[in-house]
Each structure stands twice: as structure tokens, then as C-alpha cells.
Amino acid sequence: MPVIYLIGFMGSGKTTIGSRLAKHIHYKFIDLDRSIETKTRRTIPEIFETSGEEHFRKLEQQILIEISGIAKNLVISTGGGTPCFVNTMNFMLQSGTCVYIKMHPQSLLIRILHSKKPRPLLEGMEEDELKTYIERKLAEREPFYCRAQHTVKGENLQIATLAEILGF
User: Fold this and answer.
1) Which of 11, 79, 132, 138 has the fewest CB neighbours in a 10 Å radius?
2) pLDDT, tens digit only, all 168 positions of the chain
3) Where are the domains of the chain?
4) In terms of CATH, what superfamily is 3-159?
5) Which pTM value belongs to this model?
6) What are phi and psi of 2, to 5 degrees?
């Protein structure tokens, strides 16, 4: 099977689900954000701060293409914006299987509020502002996410169910 790409909004659980799915189906797991940080020796927030989002998105696509070519039997969790820039969604659809982990905006808000992971695009936002941001950005990104070959509900997603949907 080609590469499995997990896409969805930040906080949807792509990394956790990806890691568990890969273990369940005996694939290798790669978190795109961690790969970017390892390759650049900088954190995602540092890249955003020093080089800007446009530079980050080009770098993100370049590294995604590199890691997608290393092996078959690979699950890659992408960043929330990965499918929405520089034709990256087209690349993922052509080179693998995309799974959109869809979540309700309120579920995303709760997860993001309780997350310990730094989110450079959300720094300094109050809860009401964050809720509005999630709803607006999700509406912008959903047309990209919905191009995935599979859409699954992220709340209470069972790994065995996802594996079955993917034919394992």
C-alpha cells in the first residue's frame, strides 16, 4: 500500500492516531512536524517567528516529499495546514491515501485549550477568540480536507475501525 497521510485541523489527534495506526498495521510512523524540527534543528514556532509562514509551508512540502519517498508502508501525520498550501494536497492524493480526521469545532477547542504543544498561530488568543479562529480556519481548510479518500470522525476513533476502513 502507498503512504497513508493523516490530515485534519490542529488538535484532531493526527500524531496519536498515526502512531497507534502504524503500530497496529505494522507500518513505520513519521510525524511531519518532528521531521521538520529534526532536519532544520529549529522548532516550528522558531521557524514561523524567524522566517514566516510562507517559508515554513515551502519547507514543509519539501520535507514531506522527501520522507514520502523513503519507504512504502508508512503513516505520516501532517500539520493542520499542510494540505492547504503549495499544491501539497495534490501531491498527497497522487502519492498515497489521505485520511481526514474530522472533528467538531467545540471538540477541537477543548483539545487545543488543554494541549501542552506550542501552537505558533494561536499564541496569546483568549478562549472566545480561539473559538472564532477555529471555526473560521476550519471553514477555509475543509475544502482541502474533504478531498481525502477517507473521512473519519475523530472523536472516539478506534484504531481497529480505521485500519478496517483502510483495508487492513
Assistant:
1) 132
2) 689 999 999 999 999 999 999 999 999 999 999 999 999 999 988 998 899 889 999 999 999 999 998 878 999 999 999 999 989 999 999 999 999 999 999 999 999 888 767 665 676 778 889 899 999 999 999 999 999 999 999 999 999 999 999 999
3) 3-159
4) P-loop containing nucleotide triphosphate hydrolases (3.40.50.300)
5) 0.93
6) -70, -175
